[in-house]
Amino acid sequence: MPWYLLAAGRAVLESEQTAVADALAAHPVVGLPWLWLSPVADGERPDGRGLRLTGSGSGWTGAVVCSLPLPLASESLGAIVVQHPCFAGADARAQLVAECSRLLVPGGRLAVFALNPLSPYRLRLRRGRPCTEDPATWRRWMDDAGLMPEASAQGIGPQWSPMASPSLQSGPGLRAAYLQRAEKRAIPLTPVRLRKPLGLADGVPAT
Length: 207
Known about the structure:
By secondary structure, this protein is an alpha/beta fold. It has a single domain, classed as Vaccinia Virus protein VP39 (Rossmann fold), CATH 3.40.50.150. It is built from three helices and eleven strands, in the order αββββαβαββββββ. It has helices at residues 7-24, 90-103, 135-144, and strands at 34-38, 50-56, 59-62, 77-83, 104-115, 147-149, 154-156, 169-170, 177-184, 198-199, 205-206. α2 (90-103) crosses α3 (135-144). The radius of gyration is 20 Å and the shape is globular. Residues 188-192 and 194-207 have low confidence and may be disordered.
């Protein structure tokens, strides 16, 4: 049974429910669809139009079965939630961030939920435990992919006892998990050419 279906893992996911729903609703343009990459298939479906896929090996299952690259159009999504991804290597997780950047519209938002490697809760992870990465690593991947990460992550979830704790705190601290957000840079497709000031009869320029 996956760790996230055990009591310790469920406490983490239950802590994140509200934050996940908020992240999926954070569209820069009303009506754009969202993508939620989740470690388990159960749980409530958030409001709005979107696609939820469940992690399976090196890919996902759901309405579609796929791996990287995801079979979605570039710049088609307003928000993406990546919740506890775990691939064979860090390079694959970095590639996932780059893929999220491709899918987001300019101004679109990415939210990554990951386990905190400094939390005492890590002792509840069993052998073959889920992947853990520090927030700075995710911020570097986000920056490399053309995203603007928030300066610090927010801690969420329990510290030791497997009980849901949904409140967000500044910095990961000792919480079991953290939320790292980023936004896709909005860059004009063509540079804007500055107009020359118009000359008036008396020689005074006017813009």
